[in-house]
């Protein structure tokens, strides 16, 4: 979950490292630190508990010397509390000439620590990571070969790790190793970079290499070598990062979340772009590597966590209705421990914004080992999930920095709709004209998202006025149900308010007992034009909760003449094909949660206890 950055080259390393950490801070913000080797050959380290700004202050108080090589870390604590002492980097050896940063968990750290303690090593932290620092320092002392020492130590570690090391005696060299945690190399001209993801260096270079499982990177200013853990060369292809550096900055918005919500016309549009022709027919060339299973699948299993799983739940309705295929949505961390039934005709679709969520990666590996083909729906180029899947349908949402997912969610839904229509065509489950008609409706989404955003001020005002709420309930039916779940998750995540999403039909089976005088309930109201006539059922549900004192906020379609009679507040979204309404319906919920959290004075981009990418199980 931590963010890692490394640099060697002509620039001021502290500036490169702090810039990279700023862009990676969403990965964890319990503490931050940097080490560098100054031009006169000294290893210098600064680290502080708390957000990156505390480290910046520490460096301002005790400036670092000029340096052109260094490593930096922003932490999401696993072993050891978020203190200055447990912050990375950790120094290794009695002379403290080696510095190490780590993302992941070293599972066998207790036995390694016991070995070091027996040899008289003194520890300065409670972390698992410090063990690796002392081990590399000790091996180096014996052999005098830093690369060999590093290789021998990473071979002894179990668990998940990206580790970066610099040593005062080797002032031109950064070493890195990767197992089950992300690592990307940025290739510059006379300079090179390392990062947990490309955001770490995208302002300096767009040329990148994604480092594979169990690989070591030997990084110098004039070249990069990648080998496996046995020391054999490992060939890699470069890719070009398609993110613009400015996309990863706030660009004048008060928060990344505000910017990312506002980005949605573009992110939905970019995800659809080039994948629908003018007739509305879907063109998904990226599915070519798995065309057999796409054509012959008898079942789809989505694996995902959090918001990505709710996007898959939205997708499920479309796949079943349009493509007439059996779909299940599995939380990745439950999936592989359930002994799921998988056949070669099961298409597994892994959905992940980051492509680095460990649970989803493990579910993907499990499915592949069971003989399934895996399609990734992923937002991050070069991510592990993209590399390990048989095909990738990228969402083109651009970098999502705020911990609470917004634009990635709507882009994932757009991608699901494309895929569902594509499969409907292959399976001849929908007449071509009907499928193309939906395709043309999809193309209208970006403009309709713009309309929703333009009128969202009222939802923000409402959010502000609920600053004292202790609990908010969300109700939806059909495709509105996962939107209710997502609305509740947003509120929990960033406003720290108890929130629950329910299928409206489930209300009388228990949840209605929660409703008392003044209980805020946000209801996603389906279109009155919906042929499944869910609209009257939801209106009845609203009446049931109103009768028990609920304060109802409805999200309804323009032209719904009935709902305002039963709700205190109605936020209207433009009309669209009912299945596609989820993208429009979730935006007011995002805005409500953000406004409420802002009213409480909370940091919406970096909510407590969370990190953007959950890279440990
Ligand atoms: O990167 P991923 O899409 O795999 O992340 C999955 C979840 O961790 C993520 O969606 C999380 O639930 C968000 N913080 C929700 O806003």
Outline the secondary-structure elements.
Blueprint: E1 3-8, H1 13-24, E2 31-38, E3 43-49, H2 52-61, E4 67-75, E5 90-92, E6 98-106, H3 109-118, H4 129-143, H5 146-154, E7 159-167, E8 174-179, E9 184-187, E10 192-195, E11 207-210, E12 215-220, E13 223-228, E14 239-240, H6 256-262, H7 264-272, H8 291-296, E15 299-304, H9 306-323, E16 326-331, H10 332-335, E17 346-352, H11 358-369, E18 373-378, H12 384-388, E19 391-394, H13 407-426, H14 432-443, H15 445-454, H16 457-465, E20 471-476, H17 480-495, E21 498-503, E22 520-524, H18 534-546, E23 551-557, E24 569-573, H19 581-599
Helix pairs in contact: 3-4, 4-5, 7-13, 7-15, 9-13, 9-17, 13-14, 15-19, 16-19, 17-19
What does this structure look like?
By secondary structure, the protein is an alpha/beta fold. It folds into 3 domains: 239 residues, 4-Layer Sandwich (Glutamine Phosphoribosylpyrophosphate, subunit 1, domain 1), CATH 3.60.20; 191 residues, Rossmann fold; 162 residues, Rossmann fold (3-Layer(aba) Sandwich). 35% of the residues lie in helices and 23% in strands. The chain contains 19 helices and 24 strands. Strands 3-2-4-1-10-9-11-14 form an 8-stranded antiparallel beta sheet, with helices on one face. A 6-stranded antiparallel beta sheet has the order 5-6-7-8-12-13. Strands 16-15-17-18-19 form a 5-stranded parallel beta sheet, sandwiched between helices. Helix 3 crosses helix 4, helix 4 crosses helix 5 and helix 7 packs parallel to helix 13. The N and C termini lie close together (10 Å). 5-amino-5-deoxy-1-O-phosphono-D-mannitol (M6R) binds next to helix 9 and helix 17.
């Amino acid at each position: 979950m931590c963010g890692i950055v490394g640099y060697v080259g002509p620039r001021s390393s502290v500036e490169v490292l702090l810039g990279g950490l700023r862009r990676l801070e969403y990965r964890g913000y319990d503490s931050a630190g940097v080490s560098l080797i100054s031009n006169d050959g000294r290893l210098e380290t600064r680290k502080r508990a708390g957000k990156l700004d505390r480290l910046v202050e520490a460096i301002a108080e005790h400036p670092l010397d000029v340096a052109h090589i260094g490593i930096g870390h922003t932490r999401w604590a696993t072993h050891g509390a978020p203190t200055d002492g447990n912050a990375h980097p950790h120094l290794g050896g009695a002379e403290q000439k080696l510095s190490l940063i780590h993302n992941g968990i070293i599972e066998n750290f207790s036995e390694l620590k016991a070995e070091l303690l027996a040899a008289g090593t003194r520890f300065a932290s409670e972390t698992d990571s410090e063990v690796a620092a002392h081990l590399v320092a000790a091996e180096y002392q014996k052999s005098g070969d830093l690369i060999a020492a590093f290789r021998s130590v990473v071979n002894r570690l179990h668990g998940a790790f990206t580790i970066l090391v610099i040593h005062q005696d080797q002032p031109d060299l950064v070493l890195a190793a990767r197992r089950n945690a992300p690592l990307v190399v940025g290739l510059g001209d006379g300079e090179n970079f390392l990062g947990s993801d490309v955001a770490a260096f995208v302002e300096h270079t767009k040329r990148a290499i994604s480092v594979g499982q169990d690989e070591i990177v030997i990084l110098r200013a004039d070249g990069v070598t990648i080998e496996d853990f046995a020391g054999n060369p490992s060939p890699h292809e470069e890719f070009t990062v398609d993110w613009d550096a400015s996309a990863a900055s706030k660009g004048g918005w008060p928060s990344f979340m505000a910017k990312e919500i506002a980005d949605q016309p573009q992110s939905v549009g970019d995800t659809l772009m080039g994948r629908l022709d003018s007739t509305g027919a879907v063109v998904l060339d990226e599915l070519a590597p798995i065309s057999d299973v796409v054509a012959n699948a008898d079942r789809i299993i989505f694996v995902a966590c959090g918001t990505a799983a709710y996007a898959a739940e939205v997708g499920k309705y479309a796949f079943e209705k349009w493509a007439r295929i059996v779909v299940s949505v599995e939380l990745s961390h439950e999936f592989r421990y359930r002994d799921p039934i998988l056949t070669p005709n099961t298409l597994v679709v892994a959905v992940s914004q980051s492509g680095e969520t460990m649970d989803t990666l493990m579910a993907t590996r499990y499915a592949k080992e069971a003989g399934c083909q895996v399609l990734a729906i992923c937002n991050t180029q070069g991510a592990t999930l993209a590399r390990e899947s048989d095909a990738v349908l990228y969402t083109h949402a651009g970098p999502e920095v705020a911990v609470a997912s917004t634009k990635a969610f709507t882009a994932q839904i757009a991608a699901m709709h494309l895929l569902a229509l594509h499969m409907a065509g292959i399976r001849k489950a929908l007449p071509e004209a009907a499928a193309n008609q939906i395709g043309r409706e999809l193309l209208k989404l970006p403009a309709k998202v713009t309309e929703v955003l333009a009128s969202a001020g009222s939802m923000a005002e409402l959010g502000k006025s609920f600053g004292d709420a202790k609990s908010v309930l969300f109700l939806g039916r059909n495709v509105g149900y996962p939107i209710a779940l997502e609305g509740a998750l947003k509120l929990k995540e960033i406003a720290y308010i108890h929130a629950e999403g329910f299928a409206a039909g489930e209300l009388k089976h228990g949840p209605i007992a929660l409703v008392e005088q003044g209980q805020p309930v946000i209801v996603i109201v389906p279109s009155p034009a919906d042929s499944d006539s869910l609209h009257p059922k939801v209106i009845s549900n609203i009446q049931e909760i109103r009768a028990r004192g609920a304060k109802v906020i409805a999200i309804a379609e323009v032209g719904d003449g009935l709902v305002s009679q039963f709700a205190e507040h109605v936020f209207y979204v433009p009309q669209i094909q009912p299945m596609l309404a989820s993208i429009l319906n979730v935006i007011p919920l995002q805005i409500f949660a953000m406004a409420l959290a802002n009213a409480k004075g909370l940091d919406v981009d970096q909510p407590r206890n969370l990190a953007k990418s959950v890279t440990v199980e």
